[in-house]
């Protein structure tokens, strides 16, 4: 995690931006480097400021947050994008996660939780509570095409890779997976890196969702 976490706040409501800036600015290790009111400005701000974390509202006029997330996540050394939403989980959130977002937060997240979760995102981890995961999985229940794609992709994995993927679907860290499968953390990290390529996933969260889609982890 960087010594100072550089955050870009993206929301079309100035009051929301001001609220998030106030909360995050109270943390000694977080700096809000800029605000943007639409997706196009967000992409430009990422290029200009190179933030570590982007808090991205998904529903904005003009270029929406989903489109901006897709563009940002394809950049070299892309920042961690965390979707901001008023709703606990919906199709917009699911599409943002599939585009490469590392998680999502509801705008009513308590201040101290928000600060802690921004640190989690900056450290390269998934920002997704168990309750959020439950709601998200409920939202994916009817996507037959996603299930078929996931099953097809997992057929290319080895037995050991399937075991690691199943652990990712259960939200386990590399250390927890290593202990469960009697492997070193370095070996687990290597498995995860190879699987992300095989499965065409941007991050661990996408791989974990794919494990659910493929039926490796019960909903």
TrEMBL record:
<keyword id="KW-0597">Phosphoprotein</keyword>
<dbReference type="InterPro" id="IPR011006">
    <property type="entry name" value="CheY-like_superfamily"/>
</dbReference>
<dbReference type="InterPro" id="IPR001789">
    <property type="entry name" value="Sig_transdc_resp-reg_receiver"/>
</dbReference>
<feature type="domain" description="HTH luxR-type">
    <location>
        <begin position="150"/>
        <end position="215"/>
    </location>
</feature>
<dbReference type="InterPro" id="IPR039420">
    <property type="entry name" value="WalR-like"/>
</dbReference>
<keyword id="KW-0804">Transcription</keyword>
<dbReference type="Pfam" id="PF00196">
    <property type="entry name" value="GerE"/>
</dbReference>
<feature type="domain" description="Response regulatory">
    <location>
        <begin position="6"/>
        <end position="122"/>
    </location>
</feature>
<dbReference type="Pfam" id="PF00072">
    <property type="entry name" value="Response_reg"/>
</dbReference>
<dbReference type="InterPro" id="IPR058245">
    <property type="entry name" value="NreC/VraR/RcsB-like_REC"/>
</dbReference>
<feature type="modified residue" description="4-aspartylphosphate">
    <location>
        <position position="57"/>
    </location>
</feature>
<protein>
    <submittedName>
        <fullName>Response regulator transcription factor</fullName>
    </submittedName>
</protein>
<keyword id="KW-0805">Transcription regulation</keyword>
<keyword id="KW-0238">DNA-binding</keyword>
<dbReference type="InterPro" id="IPR000792">
    <property type="entry name" value="Tscrpt_reg_LuxR_C"/>
</dbReference>
<dbReference type="InterPro" id="IPR016032">
    <property type="entry name" value="Sig_transdc_resp-reg_C-effctor"/>
</dbReference>
